[in-house]
Amino acid sequence: MQVWGVVFHADSFTDNLFEQGLALVDGSSQARIKRFYRREDACRVLLGRLLPRVLLQKRGINLRDVVIGQTDAGKPFIISPILQDRIGFNISHDNSLIAMAYQIESEEKEPEADPLKIGIDIMKVALPRYEQSFETFVHNLGDTLTPLERRLLEDPSALLTEKLRRIYLMWTLKEAYTKAIGYGLGFAFNRIECNVLENTVLIDGAAPRGWEFVVFSVNVQGHEVDKQELYLGVVARFIGGDEVLRMAFRDHDEGSWFLQYDAPSIVRFALEGNN
């Protein structure tokens, strides 16, 4: 499993780069991207469309030799006759960061591992600008939280920074898992319980076997000069086996599992592969 993080700043992503990147994606993607009112949102979605393309290029795979399949739930995946493998991938974006998690069938250790069951979600760790307070933030999440999760968020002994970490860990884990199984918002979030103190996960009251939840954080340069933004992310994936796993916390600087790029570089990589 590997994660790519792409740092996006609107002022360094020129209109020319946007148009060049847009020309590389299919017509339906172009139409969807053009419908966004805010340019920043269109750019983030475009970069998400380009990431699988760049992944294939870096592995020496010609796009003409690739088939995009879909699971029964409609989740896309890559089939490459060259690799003779299926490549599962998932995209997430928030503010200044776009991320892709992927895994390749032959690189999984357990024979029953499913490379298509992978999901990622990332979020900036900050109170949303439309929320008046942390309390209203929790209230507006409604019944997506379990009673235990709500108690952990209402803990009077926890500082605001810790409460924000907790709520985003809960939310990104729920998002990542539902994206991994291919249901997204069609799966009730209160069926998933994330105990951020014990680092355990329950699905419908039971510990999921064979699932790994990788938690990571990334600091990136924000839109404002000399201001860092903290992002929290979770990758959920089915690795097989009968083991019940706790959440695994990884440092993005350790090993080669996390690679970071800037947004203009992704467009340039995609253009190189189109020549």
UniProtKB/TrEMBL annotation:
A GO-annotated cellular component: cytosol
Database matches in Pfam families: AASDHPPT_N, ACPS
Keyword NADP: no
MF (Gene Ontology): holo-[acyl-carrier-protein] synthase activity; magnesium ion binding
Signal peptide: none
E.C. numbers: 2.7.8.7
4'-phosphopantetheinyl transferase domain residues: 118-199
InterPro entries, sorted: 4-PPantetheinyl_Trfase_dom, 4-PPantetheinyl_Trfase_dom_sf, AASDHPPT_N, P-Pant_transferase_sf
Stretches assigned to the 4'-phosphopantetheinyl transferase N-terminal domain: 17-101
UniProtKB keywords: Transferase
Enzyme class: transferase
GO biological process: lysine biosynthetic process via aminoadipic acid
Protein name: holo-[acyl-carrier-protein] synthase
Phylogenetic placement of the source organism: Eukaryota, Fungi, Dikarya, Basidiomycota, Agaricomycotina
